[in-house]
Amino acid sequence: MRPATQDFIRQIVRDDLAAGRHASIKTRFPPEPNGYLHLGHTRAIWTDFGIAAEFGGVCNLRLDDTNPAKEDPEYVAAIQDDVRWLGYEWHDLRHASDYFEVFYLAAEKLIRQGDAFVCDLTAEQVREYRGTLTEPGRNSPFRNRSVEENLDLFHRMRQGEFPDGARTLRAKIDMASGNINLRDPALYRIKHVAHQNTGDAWPIYPMYDYAHSLSDAVEGITHSLCTLEFEDHRPLYDWCVDKVDLARHPELIAPLLDKGLPFEASKPRQIEFSRLNLNYTVMSKRKLMALVNDGLVDGWDDPRMPSLQGIRRRGYTPSALKTFVQRLGLSKQNSLIDFSVLENTLREDLDAHAPRRMAVLAPLKFVLTNLDEKHEETLRFANHPKDEAQGERNIPFSRELWIERDDFAEVPPKGWKRLVPGGEVRLRGAGIVRCDEVVKDANGEIVELRGWLDPESRPGMEGADRKVKGTIHWVSARHAVPAEVRLYDRLFSVANPDSEAEGKTYRDHLNPDSRQVVRAYVEPAAADAVPEQSFQFERLGYFVADRKDHRSTTPVFNRSVTLRDTWSAKA
Ligand code: ATP
Ligand code: MG
Predict the structure, then answer these.
(1) Is 285 in the pocket of ligand 1 (CB under 6 A)?
(2) Can you tell me the distance from the alpha carbon of 404 to that of 228, in angstroms, rounded to the nearest whole number?
């Protein structure tokens, strides 16, 4: 059992429930469908869905689709897929665009209350009037339009009478506020663009703060959890919720009842936590999109991408990701996490759960001359050294084997424990062998080793425990299945690819060795893998059967992570 997680948000929820402020809690995860989810979103998903579940509440998946130009149903589908893959199920699936009619009625209410006005300033003028951090802004000359004129203009905006950018609907708050977000922020803008959910129905679209706060209120969200950059927006969030006051104005949500959507408006509370930032990667959707569009990676699900689709294909498991974010916990302090912390969590998870297999990535033939040409036997290997419940498997053994080229040295360096001419080494689970002959081609390249298997050293024999320095892995040449193995490494070769030092950008820091493809041989039980099954290839690392390309007849494996951290040594 994991210890119960403690953090400031859970404490607030606990207090709210204890004080009877809510009978039960409701959260939401609100991604904008303008790209694929990435590692950073895991923290938000774990927080939103995890807290709801821990306290017996529910969590909605809400697609925050108020910015039509960049949104696409492809992303909507991928987001659902990713949330489910992480092991979470939403209460209701909603789109912010489901509430466009409510937002519109709420805006009319704000106008009638004298809390909103139609403004004709251009974007540039609005900037000019806004003031700065040290100087107050100035009131728009359109701020004192009558309610009737505002209602009329707002209707005509909605009818599509005006071109993009000609007018905005603005909240009437305080142009002198120390918080610039409160200086009469825009609530609606004109944009004649089709929307992925509502088509051509709307030529005006609500702004983020307005739509987000009201969406939360409409859905009856009790705790609206988000990242720290929204802290300065909280006063505006509260302003929108309070001024519209959906909980006491059921007439505003009549359009939803007509659509059959259940209604339970609330006064939600926004709480911010710090973003998850990792070195050796970039996580903004915009930059990830550029990597894809410019062909620097093979799509959103390239196993080097920090997108959830990418790391899933890389062999990251939902349990490793959840352990990772749980260990980091939630705080108000922004920090940068070392990528090796993530990799170590994956190693730990796969070490505990992934069955072992043997694979040879750079094959060199080794012929055991004292075995008969037709010699063939089946050895039994444990699937996992620490987990008996995983059982055993058959491994064929015969006269000709593949071993790693790297496990043989004609002239060994100091401290070498593996095979040398005339030397002995243990073949994992099969006995002790000696190398008698090194066969070379006309160019002097080693093409084959020939040697002797000590018959007294076979498993179960008395000589099986005889001491030799090294143990190497192998596969039977006659039975091995050729496989494509993709050796992935970090996508960027520097810790901070986002730093724009010396006029460079993240594109200049791509790791040229982040993908290497080799023709390997794997034991039959590895070829039999189902897509997405993970293994430890003994002595090599953790690998996963590729989700898209793997077939038992033509196996394809991706390296998820090496056995040991090879990066901290470099740093
Ligand atoms: P990006 O900047 O990558 O485009 P975003 O914040 O615009 O990300 P959204 O789709 O709007 O992405 O995010 C949905 C939710 O996920 C938001 O609540 C946001 O705060 C949260 N989130 C996004 N990135 C991170 C991160 N790195 N760490 C924690 N939460 C995040
Ligand atoms: Mg966003």
Answers:
(1) yes
(2) 50
Smallest-distance ligand from the CA of 62: 1
> Does 243 participate in catalysis according to the annotation?
no
Q: Which ligand is nearest to the CA of 283?
A: 1
Which of the following is catalytic: 170, 269, 285, 426? 285
From 34, 41, 281, give the residue whose CB has the most ligand 1 atoms within 8 Å, as the site to mutate: 41
3-state secondary structure of 307: strand
The pLDDT tens digits of the residues spanning 5-45 come to 789 999 999 999 999 999 999 999 999 999 999 999 999 99
CATH topology of domain 8-273: Rossmann fold (3.40.50)
Alpha helices in 113-227 (DSSP H): 123-130, 147-159, 208-219
Q: Which two tokens stand for residue 86?
A: 């992480």
Residues by chain with Cβ below 5 Å of ion ligand 2:
32
Question: Is ligand 1 within 6 A of the CB of residue 431?
Answer: no
Which CATH number is associated with domain 359-473? 2.40.240.10
User: What gap in Å lies between CA 487 and CA 511, rounded to an integer?
Assistant: 13
Contact indicator for 396, 374 with CB cutoff of 8 Å: no
pTM, two decimals, is 0.94
| 272 a catalytic residue | no
CA separation for the pair 367, 347 (Å, rounded): 34
180-212 residue pLDDT tens: 999 999 999 999 999 988 999 999 999 999 999
Q: Where are the domains of the chain?
A: 8-273, 275-357+481-571, 359-473
